[in-house]
Design a protein that fits this description.
The complex is a heterodimer of chains A (252) and B (56). Chain A is of the alpha/beta class. Chain A has helices at 5-9, 20-23, 25-35, 52-57, 71-83, 121-131, 149-160, 170-180, 196-202, 207-218, 222-228, and strands at residues 42-46, 63-68, 89-93, 106-112, 132-143, 183-195, 231-233, 236-249. Chain A contains eleven helices and eight strands. In chain A, helix 7 (149-160) packs antiparallel against helix 10. Chain B has 56 residues and is mainly β. Classes of the chains: A alpha/beta (252), B mainly beta (56).
Chain lengths: 252, 56
């Protein structure tokens, strides 16, 4: 049984308009650099959440559509768009694996920090390919730990948020995207120094569980520990966390 | 209400046929004969939210 991400994200939607990773200008610039927007472009931000990536794209494109499965997220995005006087963004409740758009609609396709929740991964990639115009690019940014650190983080992610399905490695991403017809132009994993406590707070994880999951990371062994290199600074846990940064081209 | 720009690119999540505005709060797939709601200005385009159009 797959856990419905709406049950996970509905109650904590507001956190996502404040969380460091999701709103950091540097992290958003990574996505912009991947998709290289043009002023006349129509962009799609899948699993937009509270609209962070869509807001970063809006000033650079003609129009951006933010799509998400969770209404509470889009209610926040819509309110923020009004407050920030962003007039070229639209919001749609939809599923990444069954997109409500015709073929070859968008100049840019972006998805960030969400595919590890998608139960139908192949359908999601196929849909990304379908709605993108030929000759243009899609950006895929998601948590992508190397093995064996992935096994440790998988346990933590799953218990932190039951709607977590699986994080793919960069090589697994490449296989999936090429299988759907994309040409992978660049694909790398980027390591971040991860603030464990903030990560848990974004999902409103109870402190007892957060403490237990910290132990899972800190008691990891061998290569996994070397990769995660957990350490306490003034009592606070930090460890490595990885994202893939992928630009995939749809051939003409 | 949704923007004209958005309406122009919305399609049925099931068959990808372009949707028509039926009521200010309803979109219609002319192929599947299904209605999708617009709630608080946001279209809900999930296959399971589509309701068969009442027979006329």
């Amino acid at each position: 049984m797959t856990h419905d991400p709406r049950a996970s994200f509905g109650p904590v939607a507001a956190n996502y308009s404040r969380a460091t990773f999701h709103t950091s200008a540097e992290r958003l610039q990574e996505v912009i650099d991947l998709v290289r927007p043009l002023p006349g472009d129509l962009a799609l931000d899948v699993a937009t959440g509270t609209g962070n990536t869509a807001f970063a794209l809006a000033p650079l494109v003609r129009r951006v559509v933010g799509l998400d499965l969770t209404r509470e997220m889009l209610d926040v995005a819509k309110r923020l768009a009004g407050e920030r006087r962003i007039e070229n963004a639209d919001w749609v409740i939809g599923d990444a694996s069954a997109l409500p758009f015709p073929d070859e609609t968008f100049d840019i396709y972006v998805v960030r920090a969400a595919p590890h929740h998608f139960p139908q991964f192949e359908a999601f990639v196929r849909e990304a390919f379908r709605v993108l115009r030929p000759g243009r690019d899609a950006a895929f940014v998601d948590c992508a730990p190397p093995t064996p650190a992935r096994d440790v983080l998988h346990e933590v992610e799953k218990r932190r948020d039951p709607s977590h399905v699986l994080s793919l490695t960069v090589e697994e991403w490449r296989t999936q995207l090429e299988g759907a017809g994309f040409e992978v132009e660049s694909a790398r994993a980027r390591e971040l120094d991860w603030d464990y406590a903030e990560w848990m707070q974004t999902m409103a994880v109870p402190s007892e569980l957060a403490a237990e999951l910290a132990t899972v990371i800190e008691s990891s062994k061998g290569q996994a520990w070397d990769q995660l290199h957990p350490e306490r600074r003034s009592g606070k846990l930090f460890h490595a966390y990885w994202h893939c940064l992928i630009r995939a081209h749809k051939p003409e | 209400m949704i923007s004209q720009e958005l309406l122009e690119i919305l399609a049925c999540p099931k068959c990808h046929t372009k949707l028509e505005m039926k009521e200010p709060d309803q979109l219609r797939c002319p192929h599947c004969k299904v209605l999708y709601p617009i709630v608080d200005g946001i279209p809900v385009l999930l296959i399971e939210e589509g309701k068969p159009e009442p027979a006329t």
